[in-house]
Fold this sequence. Notes:
- The structure holds two protein chains of two kinds.
- Chain A folds into three domains: 22-229, NADH-ubiquinone oxidoreductase 51kDa subunit (Rossmann fold, 3-Layer(aba) Sandwich), CATH 3.40.50.11540; 238-290 and 298-324, Ubiquitin-like (UB roll), CATH 3.10.20.600; 331-428, NADH-ubiquinone oxidoreductase 51kDa subunit, iron-sulphur binding domain (de novo design (two linked rop proteins), Up-down Bundle).
- Helices cover 41% and strands 12% of the residues of chain A.
- Chain A has helices at residues 22-27, 32-38, 42-51, 64-69, 92-99, 101-115, 129-145, 175-182, 212-216, 218-230, 264-269, 307-312, 331-345, 351-368, 375-387, 402-406, 408-428, and strands at 78-83, 119-124, 160-165, 207-211, 233-234, 237-238, 240-247, 253-258, 283-288, 321-326.
- In chain A, helix 2 (32-38) packs parallel to helix 6 (101-115).
- Chain A is globular, with a radius of gyration of 22 Å.
- By secondary structure, chain B is of the alpha+beta class.
- Among the domains of chain B are: 11-68, Arc Repressor Mutant, subunit A (Orthogonal Bundle), CATH 1.10.10; 82-162, Glutaredoxin (3-Layer(aba) Sandwich), CATH 3.40.30.
- Chain B has eight helices and four strands.
- In chain B, helix 2 (31-42) packs antiparallel against helix 3 (47-56) and helix 3 packs across helix 4 (61-68).
- The relative contact order of chain B is 0.12.
- Chains A and B meet through helix 7, strand 3, strand 7, strand 10 and helix 13 of A and helix 2, helix 4, helix 5 and helix 8 of B.
Amino acid sequence: MAVTEAPRIVTSRLEYEDSHTLERYLATGGYDGLRKALGMSPEEVAHEVDAVSLLGRGGAGFPAGRKWSMLRKAPTTYLVVNGDESEPATFKDHLLVERDPHQLIEGVLIAAYAIQATRAFIYVRGEFALGLERVQGALNDAYEHGAVGRDIFGSGFSIDVVVHPGAGAYICGEETALLESLEGKRGFPRIKPPYFPAAIGLYGEPTVVNNVETLSNLPWVMLNGSGAFTALGAGRSTGTRLFALAGHVRNPGVYEVEMVKTTFRDLVFAPVFGGGIPGDRELKAIIPGGVSAPWFGPEHLDLPLGQDEVGEAGSMLGSGSIVVMDDTTCVVRAAWRITRFFWRESCGQCTPCREGSGWLEKILRRIEDGEGLEADVDLLMDVCDNLAPGVSWPPQQTTICVLGSSIPSSIASAIRMFRDDFLVHVKDGGCPHG
Amino acid sequence: MTTSGVGHLSEDIVTRARELVGLYPHPRSALIPICHLAQEQDGWLCPEAIDEIAALVELTPAEVLGTASFYDMLHTEPVGTYVVSVCTNIACMLRGAYELLDHVQDTLGVRSGATTADGMFTLEETECIADCGRAPCLAVNHRFVGDVTPQSFDALVDGLRAGTLGDDIPPHGTLVRVRRAGGLRVDDATIQAEREAASAKVGGAA
């Protein structure tokens, strides 16, 4: 089983109990990457990040360097950190904000310097009470240390950073909804175009929105150089990535692995990672990349964990979450619970998403409860087709944001892979799993 | 006699709210953080608090309510001293969350969405709280508890009733222990001048 000896880039301090403190951070090379960046020109820093092909770690996988280069020139520009991690079964940014907040802050400052932002906002999911305490505490210490604020480390560069709490809404992970929320409004995704906040973002000003894990890579990249980063992984998927492993595995948790060189099988079964399925039961399916992603079966286990490799196989690495379901899992119930989530979290702006999610949830519920009809299976696919015409991958979009077009993923996967499971529910008048 | 809520929120909370307003280019951005502060005092957003928040961020009370009602963490009705949020999303469901929810309902004697008669607990079913490595998990006033069993839940309830878990699970409000040390340190004019100088230098070099 191939488990590479890649360096840990974003989780190097987690072995320490006090990994969140300034003392520990400074004792382990903290803020040296920022010092190095401030000795370079902003363009040189941006070029270094562009060179490493740092694919965004939030879900869409858009290269960070390219995002920065699209920033419209203006007197006022903002950097906004997306720390609203809410995709079900994704819990890696939660770990980073609680356990290594200085690493995130250092990444924020490097990015802010590269794009010459006027101010930076760190939007942290409101439920992360401890995470908010840790990030604000670290920021206070960083100000005291001279790493944030006026004339950082005597470089002449100044910037303020503000920690902002969310208040519980999955949709605020969508970057334009996040900006609305940061402006003190409902988290309604904005109508596109403009497609990118880099043109029109926070308060209408050019804005870069980057994910927590994405930015947490920057101190290491600055210190070790782009060559060391691109030596890891392959193709466009360079470096390491955090994967949150959940469900039916012996050791659920967050693991940092080298991209492409590691497979789904390694992650689920290697003793240093998931350790296999408890009770030696068989694997039924995995959900790669968050619940918005189409499912994989056992035949996909040897796929490498690379953005393009997984994309070509018909799904996505998405938010870096992997849910393992063993052969005792009721896939109707799993699809129902995921759909119920989308129904509850739909912002309600677009009819296909608002109405479709509710209808799909009700139909799945009645099949699970043994009150479904055989025709319901085709009806589900028909409603899915209204949300994402063709029910293909990547999905066609009928809504302002991708929440709506993500809803069919789990339903279509469950039906295409396990149609008989649905029919057994109908025929037996109930769930065979009880 | 005025109908506004001025005077309802404590002096400490109003002071902190004004500091928050000062962190943003537009006062409205402080709306959600200030709602968290108001809930620290009351547990929920009562009409008096909404009136006062509206004045602080220069909006109408309807605008404040319209925004607040969008967000799961902001309560527009009274809640118990402790809000127990049991995650039942996919990762927790696969590890027994609905069985746990049944037990929690039995122990507290209320259904999801309700508050116990003594006003101690409000129970809610929640979406993924990103603690799936310790599924099934739940949160009490947004402090996370993982690997929950029926026994550990009952012990948790006993501890909360006995008042011995104050450090682990503080009262309402996600910002209870979040204090920014001072307001903004760099004024906009300084930033502007620096950026202009920097771009002039780059332009000159090119």
